[in-house]
Amino acid sequence: MTSSPALDGRAALVTGASRGIGLATACALGEAGAGVCVTARDPAGVAAAVDRLTAAGVRAAGCAGSVADPAHLAACTERAMGEFGRLDILVNNAATNAPFGPLMDADADVWRDAFAVNVEAPLRLTQLAWRAWMREHGGAVVNVCTEGTHGVGPNVGAYGTSKAALVHLTRQLAGELAPAVRVNAVSPGLVRTEMARFVWEPGEERIARALPLARIGEPEDVARAVLWLVSDAAEWITGTDLVVDGGTRVRAAAASRILG
Ligand SMILES: NC(=O)c1ccc[n+]([C@@H]2O[C@H](COP(=O)([O-])OP(=O)(O)OC[C@H]3O[C@@H](n4cnc5c(N)ncnc54)[C@H](OP(=O)(O)O)[C@@H]3O)[C@@H](O)[C@H]2O)c1
Domain of life, per the record (predicted)? Predict the structure, then answer.
């Protein structure tokens, strides 16, 4: 039994990996021995992530574009296959948390965009990875969802609904792609990234005090969970949603019992 997961010789595609959870995940997979192809919209961010991975001794490639663009999804699959000749691991991490506001004010185009980025793109990319490599050789997919789907909150209805759909898509794909491919979700609580800055920056100490594990998450907390799920250590796990939230739901459950 090995103490840390080994991914030597495998290849991964991580979307939204120029910063935050995606970059930490790309680093973790690369340090475990995988070649990693990273994506994001901003070409400079992609180039910087590739440089960082390469400097750490990781075989890295990049592909810039939006996951809402089908041509980009095809291009980044081809980039990964062209660079590594295989595609064992797919991490659907890129997401949008717009629109932010009450659902009664949700604009139809922005709502559709949330579903295009957060739900449709993970499906399309899984189809591409399946056809290019995984159907014949096997693989592991992780969809990054959110702890927020275990409850409801103000102003995050479109984001939460799309991520809840992604949790269900994860289970559905786990059933359809077994036994060749394992498909799991990771659902982070509040993590110190750009996407969530508007939440943690104004009230980090207060939020940390309210959490059982007494701090907000770091991108590496989530990256380690993804690494474990795609590794052989999790070879009998598919269709699960691994919550990485510092105990957020434990405290929420206790509060709801007190409130009756
Ligand atoms: N941070 C949290 O507290 C938290 C909690 C629960 C779940 N999550 C989930 O964790 C995942 C990562 O979020 P994060 O917090 O690490 O965010 P982040 O730091 O803002 O990073 C987002 C990454 O995705 C890229 N991206 C955004 N839209 C994209 C698109 N349409 N196509 C391709 N790439 C895109 C960004 O680069 P560009 O801007 O250059 O495209 C960036 O690399 C998301 O799925 C999010 O929903 C985060």
Answer: Bacteria
Instruction: Output the pTM of the full model.
Output: 0.97
pLDDT confidence band for 2 (50 / 70 / 90): very low
Closest approach atom of ligand 1 to CA 148 = 6
**What is the phi/psi pair of residue 179, to 5°?**
-90, 0
Atom 29 of ligand 1, nearest CA residue = 94
| Cα 220 to averaged position of ligand 1 atoms, centre (Å) | 14
Domain topology for 11-258: Rossmann fold (3.40.50)
Contact residues for 77 (Cβ-Cβ < 8 A; gap 6+): 13, 87, 125, 128, 129, 132
Q: What is the pLDDT of residues 179-223, one digit of tens each?
A: 999 999 999 999 999 999 999 999 999 999 999 999 999 999 999
Catalytically active residues, by annotation? 159
